[in-house]
Amino acid sequence: MMKQTRTRVLLALAMAGLLMGAACGSDDSGGGTAADTGGDKVKVGVLQSLSGTMSISEVAVKNAEMLAIEEINKAGGVLGKQIEPIVEDGESKPEVFAQKIEKLLTSDKVATVFGGWTSASRKAMKPVVEGANGLLFYPVQYEGLEVSPNIFYTGATTNQQIVPALDYLKEKGLTKVFLVGSDYVFPRTANKEIKAYAAANGLQILGEEYLQLGDTNVQGIVQKVFEAQPQVVFNTLNGDTNVSFFKELKAKGNTPDKIQTVSVSIAEEEVGGVGAENLAGHLVAWNYYMTTDLPKNKEFVAAFKAKYGANKNTDDPIEAGYNSVYIWKAAVEKAKSFDVAKVVEAAKGLVLETPEGTMTVSDWNHHVFKTARIGMVNAQGIIDEVWNSGKPIEPDPCLDSYPWAKGLAEGEARQECDAAKSG
Amino acid sequence: MQTILSSLYIGITLASIFLLVGLGLTFTFGQMGVINMAHGEFIMVGAYVPYVLQTTLFEGARGAAVLAALPAAFVVAGTLGLLLERLVLRRMYGRPLDTLLVTFGVSLILQQAAKDLFSANNKDVVTPTFLQGKWNAFGVTLTHTRLFVVLVVLAAMALVWVFMTRLRAGRRMRAVMQNRDLASVSGLPTTQVDATTFFLGSGLAGVAGVAVALIGPIGTGTGSAYILSAFLVVIVGGLGKLRGAVIAAVLLGVLNAYVERWTSPTLGKAAVFAFVILFLQVRPQGVVSFRTRGLTA
Amino acid sequence: MTAVLRRTQADGPWVGRGALLAFALLLFAWPTVVGDPTEVRRWAEWLCYAMVAVGLDIAWGYGGMLALGQGLFFGVGAYSMGMYLSLQQVPDGSLPSFMALYSDYKELPLLWRPFQSFWFAAGAAVLVPVLIATLLGLLVFRRRIRGPFFAILTQATAVIFALVLIGNLKLTAGFNGLTGFAEIFGRNKYQPGTNTWLFHVASVGLLVVVGVAMAVVRSRYGKLLQATRDSEDRVRFLGYDPALIKTVAFAIAAAMAGAAGAIAAPVFGIVSPGQFDFLPSILMVCWVAVGGRGTLWGPVLGALVVNWARVTVSDARPDDWQYLQGLLFVAVLAFAPGGIAGMLRSGWRSAIAVLGRRRAPASMASAELEVAA
After folding, report:
1. pLDDT in tens, A67-112
2. Which of A23, B101, B236, B242 is the most exposed place for a label (fewest CB within 10 A)?
3. Per-residue confidence band for B276, with pLDDT thresholds at 50, 70 and 90
4. Which residues does chain C have within 8 Å of residue A33's beta carbon, measured at their own beta carbons?
């Protein structure tokens, strides 16, 4: 008897709830997320991890973005409006990036968002920025195979970082390669591309190993590397694992002339933590170094140090974050509007001066032309450029201009590239 | 043959790290039934000590800095542990689960404090010259840093053994560990003994920190990287037993090394966890346990 | 079974039902009060957390089992629904977008196929956690593993879960997780109305969970569970099997976490391993502790209050939340183990005592809350 009553109460509650849900679900109104650009200010979002594990890298990118905003405001703003940055913390969690960008776009109605670092954070933000038809500038090198109509990629795609690095190794005769990476999407996708390149270019892949992010137990992998005797390790490890990895390599008596390494996730910010003495003579692949010898870069480094302290270094993602704001500004001024569609259209083929050189925005795929640079860590922990591609490389996120890469861009990536190409 | 040997070597050195990070925990857990989740952060504190010494007092003498860091880290981490016990944990006698959660809260606070003090970036401890080098034996490369870890473990265990068997304070500790009520009615000051235990256990975590600083990253996440291994050693080893902890560490280290060798590092880790769950089916009280007539162990 | 579930005491059913009804009305009106759609989405998320907290309270507050791995069950629920939602975004029978990119699968793998059905996904979200919890519970409790040992073991299960998810990129999208749930049950995720709708779905979920928890706690089984918490041996001597009793409670907690996960997947719009690792799992315990364990409404209150505070504080000062979170653990567990509910209760009792109507019983002694394992 009692039980029946209880069941009925619960059922009634459930029914009532469902009805409420149905009633409220039907009033889908609004949805327009047109940026709020009234008044003499324009709001933009700055979304980086200010807390959590990724704050190591992302706080500096936020600082660079804020520096650019401050400079632009001092020079009169954009279309006569001062930029009002709304800073949000991604907390190093993809789901928080998704929430915060939704808030920035739909509640704060910002004109654009600058932010993200990990592939996971970008993949989390992508559907939101597309669904809300907003704009996002993503400042970090990544695994490619993506062209969102609502995202600008101001870091390198693979043909501007990994492919040139492989070309360099081939040129130097370092053809026996061992792949070591952290276990997530960027290293796995990068290694898939490296293996395809190797098959077509006569490189030998002697092994492929992955460690969990944050894992410090590297002895087994280092042992496997030594047994395979490669000429070079292509390193896509991220974060703390790099520290243990390079310490172990050094302790086992390795020097760069025995087994060289090329890292794609160690920049000036990370060198200090790994230890310059463990990295000296090893190679990294990026598109910008603090030492890049260009007048625009001298100004940038000086401004960055003046604002944040003389001991603060700039590096590739920091510079890309800084550039992002200027690219957006140039596109807005060309479009004479903050409207997303107009800004995206105006950005095509845009040319501007940046610390890494003259930069052109692709006229179809939302990436930017970048000069590939191979650097070597010196004993002071500074990265010196030892090679560059001579001229900016056209971004090719789906690697369509490389015959060996046929079949790598499948599914969504294929559709996105084809859609972008056809306009 | 060579791969079998090299994996064995890796397993043993891994075991030495497991043992070192778990050693202090076996005491606090064994005596007070308290799992100290902040143990990892005491390791972290210990890892920062050689960094601080190398960049301040011992700027010119990096080797001396690392050696001086061993006792310094013991005292610093031990004092923190003592404070934790005196200020908070004492009030929580008989509530082991609540204590576990409180120490977790403390670990969050310590991590954030480290971030504010040292910034989020990893720090670097330069390996002193006498630890740079290696020996080759039977086709296996033994690095001096790993041997140093093994030596530190052996020394720590020897000192602990002397303390526990030869010194009055140590014998008191064992008495409380084996039967708290009996020790109490026999007139032993159990709260004082608890404080000593916590100082010792946390201090050992600090020493472990110095050792891992030579082979891995030094940052706010250093503690979290090792804490789970420490727990597993304690759980498999049994409460407060040196012998149990040694056997457990070797079992887990070697298992991890061989599974990793044949498959992947991820599976190596997963195998360790699976082994622990299955092991507890066979011996729920760990490798070595006290015999008790009580219903609740 | 009905005999066990029959209510043993007559007092308070109307109070409980009244509270439930009032809570339902409050929830119904809440989105209007909150207003901003992204805020409504946040609250919907916290309602899911409250569901997990209520389940955790049955295991911990009423059963004395500190489960530090509820993220496993929450995650299984979320991934079940996440897989269904991923498949909804692509034409029937084709691969979810990440799979086309990261794997060589030509057709949908076996594991994914049943998740084309909503009812299978919803069922799996609840039943798979129940199955895992039952197996684990029977293994562990039969061997009389308890207290800190149980806590660390459950923590390890959450770690293994995250490891497995990350290690199987081709099946689970690895570290990135499942994303891009643009279409949710025929609605566009980014229309403001969708958040309100999701909020109401989560409300219903929470009301059902609280209702079930009330029934469980007040049933004879509920009394047995609390008796087991207080003295396992005495319960055993009375002829009951404590292992079975504890396993059932653990399974109920798992089911509630699984259901919460299923609702949380569309609310989050993303499911990734980091959301279900051991760190979020142990933070769930904080909600229950702050709200007040061993009470029905405490965990609900705790989940809402702690998460509201987290968002408010970390929006203003990102780094400071971790200090506060740590202090919360220390302050509540060391100095106010009854949580908010405990403080309210003792405050209420002293108020009554002051008014002199009734002699106030001693406020809950801390040792009453946890019996040494």
Report:
1. 999 999 999 999 999 999 999 999 889 999 999 999 999 889 999 9
2. A23
3. confident
4. 190
Question: Which of B198-202, C98-102, C131-135, C336-340 is modeled with the greatest confidence?
Answer: C131-135
Chain C: give the shortest CA distance to residue B94, in Å.
Answer: 5
- Enumerate neighbours of C (3 or more CB pairs within 8 A): A, B
In chain A, residues with a C-beta closer than 8 Å to the C-beta of C88 are none
> Which chains are adjacent to chain A, needing at least 3 Cβ pairs under 8 Å?
B, C
Size of interface B-C (CB pairs under 8 A): 131
Note the pTM of the prediction, 2 decimals: 0.89
A248: closest chain B residue by CA: B215
Chain C residue whose CA is closest to B294: C233
Beta carbons of A223 and B6 less than 8 Å apart:
yes
The 3-class secondary structure across chain C, one letter per residue, is: CHHHHCECCCCCHHHHHHHHHHHHHHHHHHHHHHCCHHHHHHHHHHHHHHHHHHHHHHHHHHCCCCCCCHHHHHHHHHHHHHHHHHHHCCCCCCCCHHHHHHCCCCCCCCCCHHHHCHHHHHHHHHHHHHHHHHHHHHHHHHCCCCHHHHHHHHHHHHHHHHHHHHHCHHHHCHHHCEECCCEECCEECCCHHHHHHHHHHHHHHHHHHHHHHHHHHHEHHHHHHHHHHHCHHHHHHCCCCHHHHHHHHHHHHHHHHHHHHHHHHHHHCEECHHHCCHHHHHHHHHHHHHHCCCCCCHHHHHHHHHHHHHHHHHHHCCCHHHHHHHHHHHHHHHHCCCHHHHHHHHHHHHHHHHHCCCCCCCCCCHHHHCCCC
B276 touches chain C (CB under 8 A): yes
